[in-house]
Write a structure and sequence with these properties.
The structure is a single chain. The protein is an all-alpha fold. A two-stranded antiparallel sheet has the order 1-2.
Length: 487
């Protein structure tokens, strides 16, 4: 008797084909939500009747909430389902945007922006879903694209917000982001399947509260140190409280059976060093965005400024997003052929080269754009390699929480970068029309600082153990994931 013919496998269903684009759209939305408020900041005191100090919390609240919720929601995703928690994060992001559209009360606006901070967990949750759902040969490129959405969304958000703010009521911007958020939430609900890979257990609520208190104390001190004074009682108290709380939190994590963050796993070189590299890479990347926007908007009378409008500044940032989109598959190929640690190291070197261009010439627009583009290329290489390193080093049941910690380290690096750049520019000023503005030497010092940190990230990347024989994204990794799914 002839054997039955093998079934003909047709193309995957539409939902499966759209999983990667839908998740990438969610990552872009997350970055857009973080940046759209930037063009509004100078006008918000007048529009809301609040002080500039209160208005600055529109950014700080999102940063703090994102830092706290990213590892918490990552752990919840590993335990209760990554799709479920992803939908919650997108829902909180969209709800926060609707609240911003409905009010001019600065207190509600700040609370709504804190809700939007939950979207920071979208990228690590999505990366974990991709590992669980995609075949091994597609995972690398999909993870690289997902990592690049942070820069793509930031590059798109600034010009979009600037155009709306210039030509329409500022509430229209939040209505637009609400519609985009609702679209992203609907698409994710339709296209993304729930991953069967779980790490069941009891959620560490005490660990979540301790981490939240420690991170808020640390990041609040970093973000407000320049305004309150680095030696002020408030800032010193916050840093002292952060050390004490995080010390107790570490003790609790090492003693509990089901910790929020597996510190023993994170302490290993395969996981710990990529976390350290994420901290330095976040610092180096963020300086480019901060300084470029300020430099091109500086008055022409400074001798270096170009006096560009907010809209023109946003358009200058747009090519960086395109570069990150185009280079994400290149990064995936380098990681496949040479390994992600090599990709991360190359990314750090390219970042440093970009800042060398910025130091050489920061007065001609085309050179500024070239330098920023080189920095964006290095960022793409580094950011796409970091989650791949994490995926290869942790078991399937810990991917969301481990990537959440990695994103947290990038966030801390960005916060420290913001404070460090501000401190440098405040101490290097020149007088223009009776007002103090940052000097060109101050910008160059900021570039040199960021470039040096990028080289440190390169050194850390080279210290990561080689993963020859531990290719979790190759066939061996596929067997491991498939075995976990079958349990």
């Amino acid at each position: 008797m002839d054997p039955a013919p093998a079934p003909i496998s047709g193309p995957p269903p539409l939902r499966e084909r759209l999983t990667v684009p839908v998740l990438a759209f969610g990552g872009i939305l997350m970055a857009v939500m973080q940046t759209v408020v930037v063009p509004l900041l100078p006008d918000l005191p007048r529009l809301t009747g609040a002080s500039p100090a209160a208005v600055s919390w529109m950014v700080t609240a999102t940063l703090l909430a994102g830092a706290v919720l990213t590892p918490v929601l990552g752990r919840a995703g590993d335990m209760y389902g990554k799709r479920r928690v992803l939908l919650i994060a997108l829902g909180l992001m969209t709800g926060g945007s609707v609240l911003c559209a409905l009010t001019s009360d600065i207190r509600i606006l700040i609370a709504a922006r804190a809700l939007q901070g939950a979207a920071a967990a979208v990228v690590p949750l999505s990366i974990s879903i991709l590992r669980d759902e995609l075949p091994p040969h597609r995972t690398g490129s999909a993870v690289a694209l997902m990592s690049s959405t942070v820069g793509i969304g930031a590059a798109l958000g600034l010009p979009l917000a600037a155009l709306i703010v210039q030509y329409a009521n500022w509430h229209v911007m939040f209505w637009a982001t609400s519609a985009l958020g609702a679209l992203g939430l609907s698409l994710a609900w339709w296209a993304v399947r729930e991953s069967p890979v779980r790490a069941p257990g009891r959620f560490d609520a005490l660990g979540a509260l301790g981490l939240a208190a420690g991170l808020i104390s640390l990041l609040l001190g970093v973000s407000q140190g320049g305004q309150w004074g680095w030696g002020s009682a408030r800032v010193v108290g916050l840093f002292g409280g952060a050390v004490a709380i995080l010390g107790l939190w570490t003790w609790h994590q090492l003693r509990t059976g089901r910790p929020l963050v597996d510190l023993r796993l994170a302490a290993g070189r395969r996981v710990g060093l990529p976390h350290v590299a994420a901290l330095f890479t976040g610092f180096a990347f963020y300086a480019n965005s901060l300084v470029t926007a300020q430099l091109v908007q500086a008055p022409v009378a400074t001798g270096y400024g170009l006096g560009l409008s907010i809209v023109a500044t946003g358009l200058c940032m747009l090519p960086n997003g395109v570069i990150m989109l185009l280079f994400s598959p290149v990064s995936a190929r380098v990681s496949t052929t040479r390994g992600p640690r090599v990709t991360l190291a190359i990314g750090g070197v390219v970042l440093a080269l970009g800042y060398a261009v910025r130091i050489a010439d920061s007065t001609d627009l085309w050179v500024i754009l070239v330098g920023a583009a080189v920095v964006s290329t290095g960022t793409t290489l580094a950011y796409s390699a970091l989650p791949t390193l994490i995926l290869r080093a942790v078991p399937p049941g810990a991917t969301a929480s481990a990537n959440g910690v990695n994103v947290l380290m990038r966030t801390i690096g960005q916060a420290v970068s913001s404070a460090a750049v501000a401190a440098v520019l405040v101490h290097h000023t020149t007088r223009v029309g009776g007002a103090a503005v940052p000097s060109l030497s101050g910008y160059r010092i900021a570039f040199a600082m960021a470039g040096t940190v990028a080289l440190v990230a390169t050194a850390v990347a080279l210290a990561v153990p080689s993963d020859r024989g531990r290719e979790d994204l190759t066939a061996g990794g596929a067997v491991q994931v498939a075995t976990t799914k079958g349990v």
